Amino acid sequence: MPSVAAYGVRLSPRLGLALGIWIPSHEAISLVSTVRSVGPVTSGGQIVQVDYSQQIAISQTIDRTYFGAALGFALREGLRVGASAFLVYERFAEFLDLFAGALTSSTQNGATASASIRGTPSQFAGRLGLGLQWDVAPAWSVAAAVKTPALALVTVGGLTTVVESVSVLPGATPSVEFAQSSSPVSRIAEPWRLAAASAVAIGDSSLRAELDWQAPQGSRHGVFNGRAGLLRTATPDLTWGVGFFTDLSREDVRSGSLAVDYYGVSGGVDWRPPPVRAARGPEATWDMRASLAVRYAYGFGDVERLEANVFGPASTPSTAPVRVHALSVNLGGIVEFR
């Protein structure tokens, strides 16, 4: 459930200022898996009977918070521009433990492999935005916006990876390996982002559409997403809307990753509660409204299996199709003083 808190004030008839805190997402993944099998494997050209066991435990948490300020200025009637600056804080916690072991019928032969990843890195980054809105006609408006990539300002912490393996199997050269490495945080991957939108008013209704493009960056590819909907003012106290959207993945399928494309629908209402209507007089200079929206998305894509091989070089992991159902609820409110 995204969370936003914002405050806006008109500095002059043509200039407005807004301050806000935005938490777009909180992602948490937890997985514990245990596998055991008994059977023959090939080692050094020989067939060996082994008792194989594997345990995987994964925990990942990603938190993002935006602190921002924006200015809006009316160049003339029907033409407005805006600029924004954001300080982005991201914290990424990852804990992974993997163990795989194989014992043969002889207590002196076997193989084990283990991997461990630990770290809670975080970083602050800066991002800028520019926007334009133009009322082409009384019933038709167009808009465009651009956001720069997030530029890392301060990075704290990193991830430490430890890998160990021991193999003493018939027909194979005994081996013992140990490796430890550290890597800095690189989880913020906010690229250039461009958006264009249009709205057409038809009586008490408004048809709206938006196209959004995110540039490729690092291991992620560029992607287009679209949104379209209908907004209708049923009464001065009630407005409702419905829409359709896409949320296509920027991820390439790789070990342990999930690449899912979402297609969804949304609907919501914005209303002035009865106690507010009763308290406001004809000349009231304040107002209060509440909103409730629900979004459902169906996603499909692929995940690459996370595999361990204690008998030699790592095999090529295989992919599997996945299906995802996502449901989110948004509750909001606004207080206005004029």
Question: Quick recap of the structure?
Answer:
With 338 residues, this protein is mostly beta strands. 2% of the residues lie in helices and 74% in strands.
- The low-confidence runs, each spanning 5 or more residues with pLDDT under 50, are none
Count up the helices: 1
Mean pLDDT: 86
Number of β-strand runs: 18
Instruction: State the secondary-structure class.
Output: mainly beta
Residues in helix, %: under 10%
H-E string = EEEEEEEEEEEEEEEEHEE
The proportion of residues in beta strands is: over 45%
From the N-terminal CA to the C-terminal CA, the straight-line distance is: 30 Å
Give the biggest sheet: 18 strands, antiparallel
Shape by Cα distribution: elongated
Specify Rg, calculated over alpha carbons.
27 Å
Description:
The chain is mostly beta strands and 338 residues long. It has a domain at 191-338. Helices cover 2% and strands 74% of the residues. It contains 1 helix and 18 strands. It has one helix at 274-279, and strands at 3-12, 15-23, 26-43, 46-76, 79-104, 110-119, 122-137, 140-147, 151-156, 158-168, 175-184, 193-202, 205-214, 223-235, 238-247, 258-271, 286-304, 319-337. The protein has an 18-stranded antiparallel sheet that branches. Strand 1 and strand 2 (15-23) form a beta hairpin. The protein is elongated. The mean pLDDT is 86.
